[in-house]
Amino acid sequence: MIYLFNENWYKSKKRRIEIKKYLVIIFITSLSVLFMQCYCKNNNKEISNSQGSQQWVTDSEKFALEYPLVGDNNIYVIRNIEQTAEILERGTGVVFLGFKECSWCQLYAVFLQEAALEMEIKRIFYCDIREDRLNNTESYRRIVSILDGLLQYNDEGRPRVYVPDVTIINNGKIIGRDFETSKDTLGYETAEEYWNEERITALKNRLKEGMKELDTKCNPCN
Q1: Whole-angstrom distance, CA of residue 222 vs CA of residue 217
Q2: Most CB contacts within 10 A, which of 14, 34, 116, 174?
Q3: What is the pLDDT of residues 197-222, one digit of tens each?
Q4: Are 28 and 42 in contact (CB under 8 A)?
């Protein structure tokens, strides 16, 4: 009887140890899965493919889907309008406002990236402003207020964000602005007709002049 008691006790103890090991493994695995989910949600965007299943794409990949001329290895980082307002108020970097349906934005995005790469800028913040501008949302009005005095005006004499629109900001201070072709296209019907070599060079020089003053050490922090 004593032998049976000891053997059962031993088996019971061994099982408890095994159960604890399994629980530890399950706990560590769960933490790993949770971490990866949080990482993906913070650093990537989720889209649906034609079959309806979900897949993860980076900001640069998603931007390339909307702006194919820039290529997959672009430096654009997508931000919503609230995040964009925060950057304009107290951040550092290059902010590009536009939307994919704007044919003039498509080509402008290429020249903007080329200028940024020449200045070793790591990324450009992009915000699709179309819906917020259309609905005159509170966040859109906030951006208009931030850029007060630096915007063009609509037919009613009110300030309006016309695209493509670029703001270069350093520690909350606006040090550069450009919105060429956002309203006046000099009668040209397409961006390809408008952007000759002389205009492209002049645009890049203006952009790079503003980028020179950026505190690039802070740029990745925004």
Answers
A1: 11
A2: 116
A3: 999 999 999 999 999 989 765 444 44
A4: no
Report d(CA 74, CA 124) in Å as an integer.
Answer: 9
Strands 159-160 and 152-153: antiparallel
Q: How many residues does the chain have?
A: 222
Stated pTM of the model: 0.75
Kind of pairing between the strands at 173-178 and 165-170: antiparallel
| Helices 103-118 & 197-211 angle (0-180, nearest 10) | 50
What are the residue ranges spanned by the domains of the chain? 2-45, 59-221
Q: Is 16 a residue whose pLDDT tops 80? A: no
Residue 167 bridge partners (DSSP): 95, 177
Beta-carbon-side half-sphere exposure of residue 48 (alpha carbons within 13 Å): 4
Q: What is the CATH number of domain 59-221?
A: 3.40.30.10
